[in-house]
Amino acid sequence: MALIKCEECEKEYDVSYKECSHCASPNKKIGNIKNNKNKVIIAIIVVFAVVFVIGIAKTVKAYKELKEMEKNNYEMQVDNYNKAKEVRGLIQETLEK
Predict the structure, then answer these.
(1) Rounded CA separation 39/58 (Å)
(2) What is the DSSP letter of 27?
(3) CB 15 within 8 A of CB 25
């Protein structure tokens, strides 16, 4: 059992009490602990929110890049098909001569 000295009556009482057992003066250390816990909880929530937003932003960016790559791949396939068709036509012309 840890004891602290009351700021009002200067008598000792258990640190876990919300107020002095002699004069009922509030234990300010308990209030500070609660405030610190609240600040830590808020900080953790903010960190998770920031990480979540960054994750969503990176996912959206990756999705856009993937769509762009698919579009480029499709265009390349169409170009290759057209070139192959052109070459096939040239080969047939050459064989017909």
Answers:
(1) 28
(2) -
(3) no
Dihedral angle, C-alpha 68, 72, 75, 77, nearest 10 °: -130
Is the CA virtual torsion 47, 53, 56, 57 positive or negative?
negative
The whole-model pTM stands at 0.49
Across the chain, what does the average pLDDT equal? 89
Q: Say whether pLDDT at 10 is over 80.
A: yes
Distance CA 64, CA 45 (A): 29
Q: Specify whether the CB–CB gap between 45 and 34 falls below 8 A.
A: no
Maximum Cα–Cα distance across the chain: 117
**Range list of β-strands (E), 17-82:** none
pLDDT of residue 61: 97
Q: How far is CA 79 from CA 27, 35, 84, in A?
A: 79, 66, 9
What are φ and ψ of residue 54, in 5° steps?
A: -65, -40
If one counts every other C-beta atom within 10 angstroms of the C-beta of residue 6, the result is 19
